[in-house]
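## Example pair
The file below holds two records. Each record gives the amino-acid sequence first, followed by its C-alpha cell line.
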Amino acid sequence: MATTNAKPKPANNQVALIDTEDFIKGIVQTALQEFLEAEMTEFIGAGRYERTDERCDSRNGYKQRTLDLKVGSIWLSIPQARNGCFHTELFERYQRSERAFTLAIVEMWINGVSTRKVSGITEALSSVTFSKSTVSELCKSLDAQVDAWKARDLSAHEYPYVFVDALYEDVRKGGTVVSEGMLVVCGVRDDGKREILDAAIADTESSATYNELFCSLKERGVSGVRLVTSDAHSGLKAAIKRYFQGAAWQRCQVHFLRDATMKVSLKNRCEVSTDISSIFAIDLRDKAMQRAAEVADRWRAITPKVAAMVDEDIEQCLSVLAFPKEHQVHIRTTNPIERLNKEIRRRDRVIGIFPNEASAMRLVCTLCIEQSEEWLSSKPYLDMSLLDVDDGPVGAVACLRPVEELKEAS
C-alpha cells in the first residue's frame, strides 16, 4: 500500500473556527482581561483571596466597559477596588491613536475639507453634530499627553544607537497643500530596549529643524550615543556632527541602495542592486572595500554616476562594521522605524490631506507613543553587553570615534 508524508489537514470546521472574527476577538479579550487582573493585583499588593502584609486594599467587583480595537469592539470587566480608585492604562494606551485619527477626520469635516477618499466617512459623520469647541476640547486632552511625552526626561538611560528617519505628509497650510517632513528619532537604550525619543515637523531643506530637534534631545538627557543611522541629507549630517560629537555616522544602506538604482535604467537596476548588496553582505571592512572597488570598476563604463557614488560614498555605509557583529544587521539601516511608518501610512491613506500641522503632529506622536510603549514592555532588542567587548581590530573604544577616524583605525 502506498504511503504519503503529507501532513493531515485540519478539519474544515476547525479552519472555519480559527478564521472567524469571534475566535480572534475571544483570544484578544482573554489576554486583555488577564492584563487587567494583573494590574489590580499590583495595585492592591495581593492576589485574589491572598492575605499579605503588603495588601493595601481589597477587590470590590467589576464594571463593564467596551474597548474598540482593530478586531472589533470587545467587552471587558474592569476590576474595582473597595477603598481606592483603581485606574487602568489599558484604554488610554490602545485608544490614544484611534482618537487622534478620528479627530483628524472630524477636523476635515468641520473645516469643509472633503476628498474622494474620505467621502464615505464624512457622510457617516454628517448625522452627528460636532462643534469647533467640542473638537477643540478633544484635541486639548490629546495634545497635553503629546506635549508631556515630548518633554519627558531621558537621562535615566544612555542611547548607544540612534536612528533618524523622515516621512512626508500632505498638509493644508496657508490655503495651499504642502508636503511636510515628519522626523522620527528612535534609540536603543543601554538595556537593549528600543524607545522612540521624539518626533517633529521638519523643513527638510534646512538644518535648523534638525539642530532644534537634537538640541532638545540633548537638553532632555540623551547621552552615550555611539552610532547615528540616517539618510545622507546634508543638514541632518551637519546636525549629527554638531550635537553627537564622537559618535560614528552610518548612512542607511537601504537609502543608499535606492539612490543608486535610481541612477540607472530599469533594465540595469536589478544588477546594480545585486552588486551593491554583495558589498553590504561582507562583514570585514577591507574585503568590503575591495569588493566595492570591483563593483565601481564594473559599472564605470556603463553608468559613471553609479561608479562615482560607490567610489565616494560607500564608506559611509560601512561604519557599522566597527560594531559587534551581532548588532550590525539591526543598526545598518533605519528599518527599526519602518513598522511605525507603516502604521502612519495606513491611516494617512484614509485622511489623504491633513487639515493642519497640529493634526498631523498629533497623529504621528500618538502612534510614536504607542509603538514606544510596546517596545519598552517587550524583551530587549539587542544584547548591549557586547558593546563592552573588543570584537576585533576595531573595538568598543573605537566605536566612540568619528567615522573619519574609524577608517584609519581599520
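Second record, same layout:
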Amino acid sequence: MSTRHLDLGCGARPRNPYGRDELHGVDIMQTAFQGHEMRVANVALSAIPYPDDHFDSVSAYDFLEHVPRVLPTPDGTRTRFPFVELMNEIWRVLRDGGLFYGYTPAYPHTMAFRDPTHVNIITDDSQYYFVRPHFLARMYGYRGDFSVVRQLRVKGGDFDYEPTEPPTLRRRLRLRRQERRGELSHLVWEWRAHKPGGADTQG
C-alpha cells in the first residue's frame, strides 16, 4: 500500500520531508508541478479538500504564520478561529499515527514580525493548545488529538533537519552556536495524530 504526504501552502515546490510514495499539494493559487497532485484551496478559511484519514503525513513550511487566529463571520454576529479550524483539518486528514511537520518563524525573533502578512505569532508554548495532555484550544472548538514527537528551534532557511532522525552531534553543536548568536528564528513542530479507536487513544 502506497503512502501519501500533503504539503500545505506548497507553491510550485511541494516538500516531502518523510519521503512518502505519493506527494500532494494544496495552495491558494494554481501551480504546475510534475508527477504530483495539486489542489487549489484557501485552507485558512475552508476545509482541506481531501477525505478523512487520507494522509500518512502533512507538512506546513512558512505557512502557519499567515493563518488568522480570529475573524468575524460574514454577518458579524459570531467569531471564527481559523487557526484552530486548520489544526482540526490537519488532524482530520491524517490517519491514526500520521505525522504533522510544521516549520514557522517564532517569537521572539524578528522574523516572526517583520513580514506584514504574518498574523499568527507562534511561541514555544503554542503547542499546548493542540497536544496531549493540555488541549487548551478545546474551548475554541478544537477536536484534534496530537502528541509531541519533538519541538526544535532552527535557523531560518535551514532545511537539513530530518524529521525522522534525531539531530546528529554535529547538528546539535551547530544549533548551540546558532542559538548563542540569536539565529534560531524558526520553530519546528513534529506531532503524531491519534484517532478514536486507534492504537493509542487517550482517555
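Notes on the second record: Residues 75 and 115 are 29 Å apart (CA to CA). The beta strands are 4-8, 22-27, 37-40, 55-61, 71-72, 79-80, 94-105, 146-154, 186-193.
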